[in-house]
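Request:
You are asked to prepare a plain-text protein record giving the amino acid sequence and the backbone structure tokens, at your earliest convenience.
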Amino acid sequence: MLRQHYGSEVKVPGGGGPSAFRAGVTNAGPGNPQVKDLLITGPNYWSGAGICAWVGVTVDTSRAINLQNVSAHGLDTGYYGGGILTGNCFASGCFNNGAHATGLASFGFGDSGFFGCQGGGLMVNQNGFMTAAASWVCCNAQQGVAAGDNSEFTFHTSTAVGNGIDAVAGILSLTMLLDCSVGSWSPASGVLGAYGELLVKNN
């Protein structure tokens, strides 16, 4: 179904096991390249890696990339890294997370969707920041949106429903749900948890 909507496709091959890191697109140099109208597909099975080995787009610390109408399907993780990633993106059928920002990363999504992943939809940890606006995070097996390990997630004018749990704030982290439709969340809104976690929901 996705192939009908894209003229170009990048295939990330399987094989090599959990230590064989492979990405469909990466920024290996300076600047802020823009990638548009691209489908990135994986082998449609899990690599066995704890976090991810096969990803659609990766961006390293001190690098940046801008995505417009990019879809990732059948990978470990759709979008991963520690740099700056922005755009409108889609991820489906991933075996870990739709997107995972880590290690001082800053990810921003608008008009994006993350569906049917075996892990979670959107995850930020290790001093990272993520925001999503006018987006949908639905039917992922574990968390919909989550922040952990001293990170921050701002989710606004968006929807997270049908996930294992729709929104989570983890250790020393803040998750803000602003003008959103969210089915379930933890901890309770406005209550500081025992490990410094705070979730704020304004409606």
